[in-house]
TrEMBL record:
It comes from Paraconexibacter sp. AEG42_29. Coiled coil: none annotated. Keywords: Oxidoreductase. This is NADP/NAD-dependent aldehyde dehydrogenase PuuC. Gene3D superfamilies: Aldehyde Dehydrogenase, Chain A, domain 1 (3.40.605.10), Aldehyde Dehydrogenase, Chain A, domain 2 (3.40.309.10).
Length: 456
């Protein structure tokens, strides 16, 4: 490994670390280590695998603060958010520590005997993850994959590899055998692409952009790899006139400015019923002015910088002289990839800002007349990941929820992700579900065995 990967701190533009840059050769070596470790790991008794995963959870808990500081600095996220994410890594490993002993099958009576099913691990699984929630998203994949008896090769985003590399050390310290967790820190075009085409990789679990997801699905088809994809979003936040308007408006800013808008679940389109539009906008502007943009390590900060200069410029390209800007927040002076929290209103639903994933702190507000129009606007997108519905009418909330082509919805809330509930998208937001009780299905094959009890 001759080349270097320079890791930048987005809040200061300073070099945070220089690490070896993995490429195709390092990806091959990691797959070979994972392949060698697989037979012994799948043979570990379920209760022992459970104990090891629980030990990983408790070691991450012991290291929560340094991991959170590293994540906050590398990804530019507020320290409070980073602590929450590392806390979710702990919770995810603790939750899936129960899974090895619950990989259940069916028993099916058939003529002359019994049929029954068992869940078998796939083998070596490649996990390719983005920079917005680095270790958290990696844990959503690693924990169920390892619980099911697979070995993993994790390729974190090249902009944010540091917590994954630290995790690899902690996994060994927790007692996971060498080769069970392997981290390859390098670019997607070399290390990532090699993992996707590698004949010894049984499955790719990918989170990232829809464009890269398409190319991964096409490449994985050559070896009929199992593929799950968690991709982009353009989620709707629907506010009906009968909602608690103050509460909906107070929640709307952080539903899109959280993580500086770099969140696949960002409610980046707020659909507001026309009769309460002005009242809602006044409350939204007030709530948005409370966002504190600044140093990620300052406890008061609620929004940090964007991940890179290139990404900041891409976000800025959605806001030009013709944009209906109704609010631009403040940003710090000096270095850092800052972009202000920005409200666009009222936005043409067919415009680029309202249809493409901006992945930054820019929210589009769009008025609607009635329930039918709200559903039509919400569904008028290639994406279908997340969304919110604000109303006091329970029947309407559930009617609209059922009508939306969306994987995860919250009613009178912004919540999208819980360890114990499935998460994933409709349409071009992805294929498959992570988290929840069935996530191990995506890391196992069902095998059917017939046992003859009489001659037939
Ligand atoms: P990205 O698609 O650019 O990169 C994601 C990962 O894929 C990185 O590790 C990258 O190195 C790798 N990669 C890139 N090209 C590759 C290739 N040809 N072969 C193999 N690997 C390759 O995404 P990003 O910019 O890191 O993240 C932002 C995107 O992720 C947004 O679109 C966001 O919506 C999406 N996202 C989705 C979810 C979800 O759960 N649905 C969660 C977080 C982020």
């Amino acid at each position: 490994m001759s080349e270097t990967l320079t890791v930048i701190e987005p809040a200061t533009e300073a070099v945070l670390a220089e690490i070896p840059r993995a490429g195709a050769a390092e990806a091959d070596a990691a797959v070979a280590r994972a392949k060698a470790a697989f037979p012994a790991w799948r043979a570990v008794a379920p209760a022992d695998r459970a104990r090891l995963l629980a030990r990983v959870a408790s070691l991450v808990q012991d290291n929560l603060e340094p991991l959170a500081v590293l994540e906050a600095r590398n990804a530019g996220k507020p320290i409070g958010d980073a602590r929450g994410e590392i806390g979710m890594v702990v919770d995810t490993f603790a939750y899936y520590a129960a899974a090895p002993e619950r990989l259940l099958g069916d028993t099916i009576p058939v003529a002359g005997g019994l049929g029954f099913t068992v869940r078998e691990p796939l083998g070596v699984v490649a996990l390719i993850t983005p920079w917005n929630f680095p270790l958290c998203i990696a844990a959503w994949k690693m924990a169920p994959a390892l619980a099911a008896g697979n070995t993993v090769v994790l390729k974190p985003a090249e902009l944010t590899p540091l917590t994954a590399l630290r995790f690899e050390e902690l996994a060994l310290e927790a007692g996971l055998p060498p080769g069970v967790v392997n981290v390859v820190a390098g670019p997607g075009s070399t290390a990532g692409a090699r993992l996707v085409e590698h004949p010894d990789v049984a499955k790719v679990a990918f989170t990232g952009s829809t464009a890269v997801g398409r190319s991964i699905a096409a490449s994985a088809a050559q070896t009929i790899k199992r593929v799950t994809l968690e991709l982009g979003g353009k989620s709707a936040n629907i506010v009906f006139a009968d909602a608690e308007i103050e509460r909906a408006a107070a929640a709307a800013p952080m539903a899109v400015f959280g993580n500086a808008g770099q969140d696949c679940c960002a409610r980046s389109r707020v659909l507001v019923q026309s009769s309460v539009f002005d009242t809602f906008m006044d409350a939204l502007h007030w709530a948005a002015s409370e966002v504190v943009v600044g140093d990620p390590l300052d406890e008061a900060t609620t929004m940090g910088p964007l991940i890179s200069a290139a990404h900041r410029d891409a976000v800025a390209s959605f806001v030009d002289a013709d944009s209906p800007v109704s609010m631009h927040g403040e940003i710090p002076d000096g270095p850092g990839f800052w972009y202000p929290p920005t409200v666009l209103s009222p936005v043409d639903p067919a415009s680029r800002a309202a249809t493409e994933e901006i992945f930054g702190p820019v929210v589009c507000v769009i008025p609607f007349r009635d329930e039918e129009e709200a559903i039509r606007l919400a569904n008028d997108t290639i994406y279908g990941l997340s969304g919110s519905i604000w109303t006091r009418d329970g029947g309407k909330a559930l009617r609209v929820a059922r009508a939306m082509d969306t994987g995860v919805l919250s009613i009178n809330s912004n919540s999208s992700v819980r360890v114990s509930t499935p998460f994933g998208g409709f349409k071009q937001s992805g294929i498959g579900r992570e988290l929840g009780p069935h996530a191990t299905d995506a890391y196992t094959e069902s095998k059917t065995i017939y046992y003859a009890t009489e001659e037939h």
